[in-house]
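Saturday, quiet lab. Running sequence design on the structure tokens for the scaffold JK sent over.
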């Protein structure tokens, strides 16, 4: 996002990143059998002939998984079309069938987009349905297969339903890549189809990274980064890779297309296999499954049940409050947008609503504060019934114990100071501090500011914070002009 500090590439180069994000769907059972879809169980306990790929076993597709995938597709503004399952043939020890059942040229979801908080639109090429593989653990050596003493395979994950979301190679900065992944996670959590935990592997990111001379549009050779465990780690991996490629080009060499493994502890990536071409996979339509053909009614029902998504919530708050994108994103992240809009609708001043939420309600639990009482607080502050300091104190009490702002203010003896009383106090202070007053009247801008702070501080001390800072400033300005 534009407001973050951006690690910069050397002058004259630009970054091109496309992300492939695998998301495990939170179904009760696997994609083609009735085995439990559960993380952390005893190895090889959630298995059956289907997900072990035993000869003669036949898949039956999980209707909930297909529905979740279509929900995700609609949330990502995709076209949801008839999908065809296909076999992707390759050998991998944790994939017992020796092919992965996935979608190839007819994915269920295609042609979508995701809007980042700063307005940048990430194109989404496709979001297809596929099964997960099992999990290998290489024992001994560095945890890699090359120097392992032996390897263990757990098939509990084999056949778990996934959606693979493929973005366009359009991410131009590390910040945009990070914002995209966290935006995806927010959407997954909002619609409830995945728990999207990168640390448990239910959301896994592969980054395709290339660089090119700034201003050119060609796509150069890319490397695919794997083994990324967090959004932060993705940022480091992309930066490392971009700099590595620029180094190669600058020294007259070229990167080669390959998979690279990110080593978070070492802060660098190492070369893996050189990437297969599409031909190597010998895709063909899965003969044991019929095409997935959604009806217009199914899609309409999904749209009708769709909750408000973060980008729409940001747009609504921006419209209601007129605040800038960064503040709006913060409030939506904290789940305070509904309260803000409700308070504004009740007549509370929009700018004050946003300021109080942003600075004085930055707490984990604000469940005791209702939109109604919050609106009332802001209205009291705007009307001058409470000073800014008092409003903050009342709000703090509302967070701790709920309650109505008018009652809290009364119980604390917060009554607005009468104007006469305040102006009398100001005159008294001016008389008591002639030197400071002279500096306020004759001084340069810095002096004037300093002395304004001095007088305001004195008044606040004398009134125990009950005076309205703005009224004090007005009185000081009046006296010095007159
Ligand atoms: Zn099974
Ligand atoms: Mn995949």
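Result came back. Writing it out in full:
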């Amino acid at each position: 996002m534009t407001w973050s500090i951006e690690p910069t590439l050397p002058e004259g180069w630009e970054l091109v990143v496309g992300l492939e994000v695998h998301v495990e769907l939170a179904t009760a059972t696997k994609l083609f059998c009735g085995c439990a879809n559960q993380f952390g169980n005893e190895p090889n306990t959630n298995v059956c002939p289907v997900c072990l790929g035993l000869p003669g076993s036949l898949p039956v597709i999980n209707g909930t998984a297909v529905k979740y995938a279509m929900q995700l597709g609609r949330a990502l503004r995709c076209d949801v079309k008839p999908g065809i399952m296909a076999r992707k043939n390759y050998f991998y020890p944790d994939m017992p069938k020796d092919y992965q059942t996935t979608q190839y040229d007819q994915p269920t979801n295609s042609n979508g987009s995701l809007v980042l908080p700063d307005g940048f639109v990430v194109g989404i090429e496709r979001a297809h349905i596929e099964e997960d593989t099992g999990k290998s653990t290489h024992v001994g050596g560095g945890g890699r297969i090359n120097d392992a003493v032996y390897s263990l395979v757990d098939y509990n994950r084999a056949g778990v339903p996934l959606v693979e979301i493929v973005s366009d190679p359009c991410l131009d900065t590390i910040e945009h890549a990070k914002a995209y992944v966290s935006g995806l996670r927010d959407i997954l959590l909002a619609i409830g189809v995945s728990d999207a935990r990168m640390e448990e592997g239910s959301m896994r990111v592969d980054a395709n990274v290339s660089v090119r001379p700034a201003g050119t549009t060609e796509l150069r050779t890319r490397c695919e980064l794997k083994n990324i465990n967090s959004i932060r780690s993705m940022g480091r991996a992309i930066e490392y890779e971009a700099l590595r490629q620029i180094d190669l080009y600058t020294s007259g060499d070229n990167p080669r297309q390959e998979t690279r493994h990110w080593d978070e502890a070492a802060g660098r990536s190492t070369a893996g296999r050189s990437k297969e071409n599409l031909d190597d996979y010998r895709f063909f339509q899965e003969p044991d499954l019929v095409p997935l053909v959604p009806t217009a009614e199914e899609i309409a029902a999904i749209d009708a049940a769709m909750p408000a998504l973060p980008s729409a919530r940001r747009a609504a708050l921006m419209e209601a409050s007129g605040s800038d994108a960064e503040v709006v994103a913060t409030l939506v992240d904290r789940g305070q947008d509904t309260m803000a809009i409700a308070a504004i609708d009740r007549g509370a001043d929009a700018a004050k609503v946003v300021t109080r939420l942003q600075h004085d309600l930055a707490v984990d639990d604000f469940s005791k504060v209702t939109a109604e009482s919050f609106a009332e607080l802001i209205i009291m502050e705007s009307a001058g019934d409470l000073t800014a300091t008092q409003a903050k104190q009342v709000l703090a009490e509302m967070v701790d114990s709920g309650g109505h702002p008018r009652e809290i203010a009364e119980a604390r003896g917060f009554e607005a100071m009468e104007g006469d009383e305040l102006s009398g106090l100001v005159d008294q202070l001016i008389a008591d501090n002639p030197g400071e007053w002279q500096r306020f009247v004759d001084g340069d801008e810095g002096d004037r500011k300093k002395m304004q702070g001095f007088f305001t501080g004195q008044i606040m001390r004398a009134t125990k914070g009950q005076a309205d800072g703005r009224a004090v400033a007005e009185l000081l300005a009046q006296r010095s002009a007159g």
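Notes for JK: The pocket of manganese (II) ion (ligand 2) is lined by residues 22, 130, 164 (CB under 6 Å). The chain is about 40% helix and 20% strand. Ask whether to fix the surface positions before the next round.
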